[in-house]
Write a structure and sequence with these properties.
This protein has about 600 residues and is of the alpha+beta class. About 40% of the residues lie in helices and about 20% in strands. It is built from 18 helices and 18 strands. Strands 1, 2, 3, 4, 5, 6, 7, 8 and 9 form a nine-stranded mixed β-sheet that branches. Strand 17 and strand 18 form a beta hairpin. The longest helix is centred in the middle third of the chain and has 43 residues. The protein is globular and about 80 Å long.
Amino acid sequence: MITSKQLRNKWISFYESKGHVNIGAVSLIGDGSTGVMFNVAGMQPLMPYLLGQPHPAGKRLCNVQGCVRTVDIESVGDASHFTFFEMMGNWSLGDYFKKEKTAWSFELLTKEFGLDKDKLCSTVFAGNESAPRDEETAKFLEELGIRKENIFYLDKSNNWWELEGTVGTPCGPDNEWFYPLHDEKCCDTCDINCACGRYVEIGNDVYMQYKKLEGGKYAPLENKNVDTGFGLDRMLAFLNGLTDGYKTDLFSGVIAYLEKISGKRYDDGGEAQKAMRIIADHTRTSVMLIGDVNGIVPSNTGAGYILRRLMRRAVRYARTLGIESKELLNAAKIFIEEVYNEAYPLLPEKEEYILQEFSREIERFEATLEKGIKEFEKCVNGIERKNEFMSKQNPDYVKESAIGGKQAFKLYDTYGFPLELTEELAAERGYTVDAAGFEAAFKEHQQKSHAVAEGQFKGGLADTGEATTRLHTATHLLNAALKKVLSPDINQKGSNITPERLRFDFNFSRPLTEEEIREVEALVNEKIKEDIPVVFAEMPYEQAREEGITGVFDSKYGEVVKTYSIGGFSREMCGGPHVGRTGELGTFKIVKEQSSASGIRRIKAVLE
């Protein structure tokens, strides 16, 4: 048996012996440079260096990087899907290339992990109009001792790597490694292309020779790079002879705990097994996102919405397992204190905060969950009664099979059910949900809320004199400072400005500490002292969004928007008015911080 901690250490020590520097892991939260919310691949944080920028640690790098991928969240519950996973990686930035990399991967797999070279299989790029057949890699593999019949040429869909939905990112052909789980062939032609599941992919080496352009075209990179990615979760299961990823030591402690408190056995399969997998996976990912260096908290927008969905899904499946939701906190503690305490030392440091945020979200959801479930059942029972009645009246009546959009929105707005949760519940009962109707109801609700909020905002700025203008600019600085100090997920939820003070509402689940208040205050005053120009510009709305310029109420903007930028610190869509430079503001002081509503905090501040 090999443990997860041993596997991480073995990977790093092997590549350090080959002259690589361990650069450690970076934040799970995307920085906006690649247009994705989370880091979804181990190489993603290295994008600038793969494109030619020199890395301060040199040209040979390695690490184990956490990633979050939630596009197939509904698939979690089987033996192999996870929303958080780790990638073991190493890179050459314009240094070594195919000959060295194939040799080191071969050495790692055969000597360090003890795999039989005669069973080891590899796939290479077959070539197309964009790039030639990768005969070079195949030649190196043969020279190392890989049997010729175990080298397969596959098309772009199998042996070409690129980040979907991005432009300007590196890409190229890859060389994937496969190994049989057993020696029993399902048929005479059983190989890595067979769907029987005998062969498992254990990792790949990407040869980044190209840069992705608009229109599906590619251009040669100035420097040829290597990007190796081996999934730690998958490799750990494989090396231990497991086909169930939830039986490794990454999950075994939590699964055993869930078995103990539920009285159910994981190996009995069925819905209990599925529930344990979902609870374990979603709890782990939630811990990682809250405890990240740029940690987020549950909210109704962006990354915070994904986190909320994961946590609430875990709560619901805890109920199906017959355990109290508060037990999720003990599952979280196992991940923090036993599984990831060494690899992610920030987790133990933030343990109290992580558990506090977890507990708050559980309490928020549980307060309405029971009523929400009853409301859902009421919806379904109503449809069933109607279908039964109408079928008796008219044999040709087409039965309703969808929960209405307005009903789904009520579950969201009143009971905190994400749309996806309602869709899951509906599917379990054989129904769908009118998602378009939900969006229409949501938009109608926004428009009504915005109308009220705009009235308050305009009322606050009825006096557009110098004092109010200064406070308006200070509000932009405050918004940006809160994002820096507390969380990038902070969003304005209301604003009222008079000539004497500003009032600013924002999403946050707890009172600010005195230290946080002073830090926000100091950051705003720092930007005031820098006397930064406040720059006005008009641009198309879509361009503003693409550039990351924030706005308060998306639906109120036209095709062309007004924007105000304060250096690189604050960029917002706004109608103004504003001062010309931050130096005109004076000294910023927070006079009060309090609750405004559930999950909403309010700051009152003045300029002296």
